[in-house]
Amino acid sequence: MSPQGQDDSVQQGPNSNSGSSSSVGVIIAGSVTAGVFILLLIIVILAIIVRKRRTIQSFNQEKKMDMEHDGASGVVHLPNTGGLPGISRMMLTPVAENSPRNSPLAVRRAVAYTAQTAERVKLENQATNIDQVEIGRPLGAGTFGEVFYGLWRKPEEEGYASIEIALKKLHRSDKFENFREEHVTLRQLQHSNIVRYFGVFMDHNRHEMYLATEYMKSGSLVDLLQILSGKISEEQMVEMSLGAALGMSYLEESNVVHRSLSCRNLLVSIDDSGHYIVKVSDFGNAKCVSGDKRDFVASDIIVPVRWSAVEVLRDNVFSSKSDVWSFGVCMWEIFEKGKEPWADCSDFQVSEWVLRGDRLSCPTDCADDLYEVMTSCWQEAPEDRPTFKDVVQLIGGVMTERQREKGEEEEDTESESEEEGPSAASRLQNGRAEIDVEDDEGETL
Ligand code: ADP
Ligand code: MG
Asked: Which end of the chain is more exposed for a tag (fewer CB within 10 A), N or C?
């Protein structure tokens, strides 16, 4: 609109003939420019296509030479795949394996695929038949796909035993390597704070594979904390932290690096006396390290940024000390009752802040000595962080301190008055019974 309130297009309207002839000139000039531009574009595209063709031809030539190369440096015979489609018995020279020029990506992929298929066939043959299991409701989902509840009727000498299990289904074959890693890691672990492993189950009709672990009634710790929505005592949170630290200390001793420790991957059940038992689970990204080698570099996983140590974010270096960092974040999640670390921030921002020295702030109502345990796990240099063995000691120290304080408090209250009802300390002790919540079916979670 013009300042006078008239429409601009009306002002320019029919009065001007010179305006219309100059518009025709502009259109012609525009068309010529566009034509030249399109021509140039076609020439560039053609040049790219010709170049690509040449590259493919020389690549195929090299590949042919690789495959024909034989004898001079010996041959490597790959395992027979048992007649699996597309992969017959192959031979590959060590030269082709080592030199980038002689090692086309396609050949290396075929080698990995063949080895993996052979592993899968081996695992399928060792697996227990799924028809021993009654599969129930879904329990959760993660990278592999769904996890189901199952009732395993395990054959015994007389009759069978009924065992509640959780079945993690492998639903994408490109995740087989993680599935196998989890199987290999889990079968060598046995600890009261590590989820118990029952082995691989196979549905031969549907060609589906499952990993079976003990069923953890209260599910993942992050879900439980959110359900309890703050109705949880400090004592219980300290106990949960200790359970996770004990499981991780056992992993540290066993030279296993977990690499995805978080409250999502900690599971919970309740023992006979009503205590929450926390167990470490989800070993899909776990790696065994050799005894003298404490850390390793790997870029094979998508790192959980909010739980990752500085050396993981910077250089993809993993070790038990990077797990210690993640443990500190788990403790933070516990004392923030299942809140997401760095909520409302992008992974990129989190990474930038953590690398420049920022850390998660003290959770609401969390005591200083417990926050100190967390911050000790987030020391910049891995060697300055405690080991998991130390973390267990540190948490144990806090527990002892609380016991002492409770004892003193009880003594004071008793001497003041015996008629004022139960002390704060004894209420805390009885707290577990008071805070237990019930699920829809009236069962304690
Ligand atoms: P993924 O490797 O795909 O992340 P997880 O092992 O972490 O799989 O399991 C995904 C979810 O399934 C968990 O967060 C939990 O809610 C549920 N779940 C897994 N294992 C069990 C189990 N043993 N008992 C009860 N729930 C389980
Ligand atoms: Mg998981």
From this structure: N
